[in-house]
Amino acid sequence: MSEREAQELITKADKKLASNSWFFGGNKFEEAAELYTQAGNIYKLNKRWKESGDTFCKAAEAQLKNNERDEASQSFINASKSYKKCSAEDAIASLRQAIQILTDRGRFQSAAKYQSEIAEIYEVELVDLDKAMTAYEVAADWYAGEESTALANKCLLKVATFAAQLGAYDKAIEKFEQVANASLDNQLTKWSLKEYFLKAGLCHIATCDYVNAHNAVGRYCEMDVTFSSTRECQFLQAILDAVDSSDVELFTNKVIEFDNLTKLDNWKTKILLEIKKSIGQESSLM
């Protein structure tokens, strides 16, 4: 099918919408929406992504005028799939229109799914961690409201990760601890506790409130009796010993030692570098 056919369908749909001849039968909004949808799919087959997205949006607008809100939300979602190939901002705008309809209709599970898609576009395509964090947090709230704990926690971990990268350590700690609490009694996720505690503990240390950091590690050991025997807990204790004594060499050796056994990812490495920079700063200013 050619792009010319798509344009002919659009022209036909436009004429239907402009017509006041309702007495000839049929529903002009419904018929126009079908024509726009056909045209949108033709553009999609021809990889004309912008035209495809624009045309699916026209279908959605016709469906809204016909009070076909569920169909309109799907058309906006179809538009976003095309826009993703050419315009991240347009994809987000279409998803937001779909989400508005879904939340109005109480379909929060579906709304959360597409809110997560918005967050992912901000994260991967636009590399805007602040907006990605905000979008993931909204999705987490909606998933939690629908008792989809695993999906909520997945979003919260993204929020925590980005918060730490942006220097918002208190927020990161709150979210890591929230996920840890939700995972305590779940046999499928309990194995991840040591990772959540490690990340939250590093964020505590990065705030330079070492007393609070010690208290936090002690609290994690009480929350999960197996944590004290893990390499992650021992690493946190070693890092705290190094910062307490302002010993950069000890700090470096403990990081290398841990990394040799459990490879540090870029996120942990960045936090550890921030901690290393802070060692001895307070004493050097006195």
Automatic annotation (TrEMBL):
Pfam families: SNAP (PF14938). SUPFAM superfamilies: TPR-like. It is found in: Membrane. Its main location: membrane. One of its GO terms (biological process) is SNARE complex disassembly. GO terms for cellular component: SNARE complex; vacuolar membrane. Required for vesicular transport between the endoplasmic reticulum and the Golgi apparatus. This is Alpha-soluble NSF attachment protein. It comes from Actinomortierella ambigua.
